[in-house]
Amino acid sequence: VHQSKLDFFCKLGYGKQDICKVLENLGQEALEDDVLKELIRMGSKPQALENQAQPSQLKLVARGSCSTTLGLKGLGEDESDASSSLRPIVIDGSNVAMSHGNKEVFSCWGIQLAVDWFRERGHTYIKVFVPLWRKEPPRQDSPIADQHILEQLEKQSVLVYTPSRKVKGKRVVCYDDRYIVKVAYEKDGVIVSNDHYRDLQNENPEWKWFIEQRLLMYSFVSNRFMPPDDPLGRHGPTLSNFLSKKPVLPEKKWQPCPYGKKCTYGNKCKFYHPERLHQAQLSVADELRAKTKVPLALGKGEERCQCSP
């Protein structure tokens, strides 16, 4: 009897010493309820409760707040998510500079304006491609303005020079447009240029689709870089969706039907009908059939009631 009671209370989590003391005081024939009451009165607790009562090493955090390490990590993740959701930007430096200089001067200030515009939006990957010979001193047939900006952008790892060299006094220039389209295609980014790259579209059908869908045109208005709000036309995506990898779809706004309840289009009507919210959208013919079936069914029911006596 002593061993069975000892095993029973040990399974409940009480210590053997406490159980033996209680059994000595109450006797071996004491009921289990009395033994349990005595253990509780002595202040003995099961091991599971004792472990819970011990102070844990984890720090308690108030609801709605977070620890410093988690907070810093969360902020870093949010920032990385925000930057990773924006597409890489590849700028045709020659096209932007000549456009800002009214096709007369290679204006490097125009490139800086374009880079600053995308930086303000949060884009982290920005590359500008310019031929290497633009490093040379300006000449009368190819004037350059604010050439020091190219050096600054090169130090910031934003500007990339496409290779060129001289062979027997003649300049051999690599095709910089091919660099622009290739890098933008590999990075799944956006090309900033007013050039359509028709020769490159004819070379590669994949490049053709990419240039048609990812070419961002622009304008300069009083030294202000301004891309269009609808890069792919009126029915295309907005500028923010065009420049982001995860476009946000706008909420569909329904226009109320001008005919109201007198509308005869039924479920074919493309406008909003507030009176049809809780009704199944049936065609006009189906609605008429449903209305005619109701009185017919009522008439048949009345005839049956009259004939039953």
UniProtKB/TrEMBL annotation:
Query: Residue ranges of the C3H1-type domain?
Result: 251-276
Q: Which GO terms describe its molecular function?
A: hydrolase activity; mRNA binding; RNA endonuclease activity; zinc ion binding
Asked if the record carries the keyword Zinc, the reply is yes
List zinc finger spans: C3H1-type.
Answer: 251-276
Its GO CC terms are: cytoplasmic ribonucleoprotein granule; nucleus
Q: Which cofactor does it need?
A: Mg(2+)
Tell me the keywords, alphabetical order: Endonuclease, Hydrolase, Magnesium, Metal-binding, Nuclease, Zinc, Zinc-finger
One Pfam family for this entry, by name? UBA_6
**Presence of the UniProt keyword Chaperone in the record:** no
Concerning its family, UniProt says:
Belongs to the ZC3H12 family.
Protein name as catalogued: ZC12D ribonuclease
Species name: Falcunculus frontatus (Eastern shriketit)
